Amino acid sequence: MKWLLLLVAGLFEVGWAVGLKYSEGFTKLVPSIFTILGMIASFYVLSLALRNLPLGTAYAIWTGIGTVGTVILGIILFKEPIDPSRLIFVGFIVIGIIGLKIISAH
């Protein structure tokens, strides 16, 4: 359950990060509201996951999920560049997430 909570927190992080783009600096009301709600949800669910996970591991995975998800949605939604070196380094983040999960599985 703790890993599922962490995943959900990371997905909320992706949501609020993308919401920041749509809110245009909090100048658009509806995207701003969803962004703020996403932030609150992300931090709350992360706090639940932290009850049973080490802080450093959980925070690294949470931000990693947010980073990877935001890069993917940036490419899909905002036509951000698909540079091979960029994808390689995002792949390193994914490897780091998997590695932290493996060594923290107990």
Features:
106 residues; 82% helix; 0% strand; single chain; mainly alpha
Number of structural domains: 1
Q: Give the fraction of residues assigned to helices.
A: over 70%
Rg, alpha carbons: 15 Å
Order of helices and strands: HHHH
User: What is the β-strand count?
Assistant: 0
Note the beta-strand portion. under 5%
Subcellular location: Cell membrane
InterPro entries: EmrE-like, Small_drug/metabolite_transptr, Small_multidrug_res
Family: Belongs to the drug/metabolite transporter (DMT) superfamily. Small multidrug resistance (SMR) (TC 2.A.7.1) family.
Pfam families: Multi_Drug_Res (PF00893)
Descriptive notes:
The protein has 106 residues and is an all-alpha fold. Helix 1 runs antiparallel to helix 2 (29-49), helix 1 packs across helix 3 (55-78) and helix 3 (55-78) packs antiparallel against helix 4. It has one domain. The protein has 4 helices and no strands.
